[in-house]
């Protein structure tokens, strides 16, 4: 870019702390050709010196340069002010639910009564559906959705083509929490607060999709559920309130032989005051999210080896990185975990060692602005993070390209 500065009268110009490569002649001629890495906002401080009568005047004028890539400028129709919209997906509701699609190649975003299938970089909308009822949890089969609805107090089976409710299975328990589908058999696992012996116990039931029958086996307790893609295991996070405090556990159940799962492994006190459960796409790591973090009160996130929950987990040092211990996301193909920085950003860790990955996330382009980041997700193509943001009265998903090593970028390229 080339520009001519003018201050009226005889003046001399100079740049204070200019970006690399930027030059400003004393006569006011400014020249800068940003490199491909120099994208985003660059603050400039222009010092102007001139005579005013018999006195010398000197003032510093702040300016901000917004540098966008040529490709983004073209996609935005030549209007740099529209580039930010290429990286932003507006949300309608106060709370969304995000799940992996049935094919493992897309994200499903539930937002109010709308479900959107996102592919590629996470900003590509492949399909949208309007559901006939508000739902709090949703999962996908090839031809229908399975949704848990507080409004209906039921498990709904919704035809994807007609968007009509084809079956209603009553779930009129005190509170409904989560659902998970068996990937190979027509079974749905649903967790809810059930009254037993005068106490409310978070338990999970088994729904037969073919008949709508519900089994309520004794002893199956849990609040959050996740099934491995190979259909061999169910992972359960349990949060129960007892004696004015929470009791938390993390368990794995074997699904291979019978309809009723049986406990294979259990970890007590994987943190305190649980918030959720996240399973890595390959089923090898599982995190139980809590307010305290793990180890207890460390504000860090742990990822257990799903084959042995008694083994000390990998620890992601969220606290020292300024990240939240309330959420973690696992990359679909690479050994990367990510946690949100609530004040605007994210940090990545090596999934198997816990070591932070420097400079993996750059929120400078386009500038993220003053937002709060609640959660994050990896895009289906694995090349981006999607930050769930709120700011200036708006909620949106914001795409942030990952800065990956050449080796990892090559692993994301589709096979020839």
Chart the SSEs and their pairings.
Blueprint: E1 2-4, E2 11-16, E3 23-24, E4 29-31, E5 40-52, E6 55-67, H1 70-75, E7 88-90, E8 96-100, E9 107-111, E10 114-119, E11 124-130, E12 137-140, E13 144-149, E14 154-159, E15 165-170, E16 175-181, E17 187-196, E18 199-208, E19 214-215, E20 224-227, E21 233-242, E22 245-254, E23 262-268, E24 274-279, E25 285-290, E26 301-305, E27 314-316, E28 329-330, E29 336-341, E30 345-350, E31 372-378, E32 384-391, E33 394-401, H2 406-412
Antiparallel strand pairs: 1-4, 2-5, 3-4, 5-6, 7-33, 8-9, 9-10, 10-11, 12-13, 13-14, 14-15, 16-17, 17-18, 18-19, 20-21, 21-22, 22-23, 24-25, 25-26, 26-27, 28-29, 29-30, 31-32, 32-33
Note down, in words, how this protein is organized:
The protein has 416 residues and is mainly beta. Helices cover 3% and strands 49% of the residues. It is built from two helices and 33 strands. Strands 7-33-32-31 form a four-stranded antiparallel beta sheet, with no helix packed on it. A four-stranded antiparallel beta sheet has the order 8-9-10-11, with no helix packed on it. Strand 16 (175-181) and strand 17 form a beta hairpin. The model is unreliable at 1-5 (pLDDT under 50).
What best-fitting shape do the alpha-carbon axes yield?
Answer: elongated
Total of DSSP H or I helical runs spanning 4+ residues: 2
Q: Report low-confidence residues grouped into runs of 5 or more.
A: 1-5
Q: What is the mean predicted local confidence, pLDDT? A: 90
Largest sheet: 4 strands, antiparallel
What is the straight-line distance between the termini?
40 Å
What class would the helix/strand composition place it in? Answer: mainly beta
Q: What integer value in Å does the Rg equal? A: 26 Å
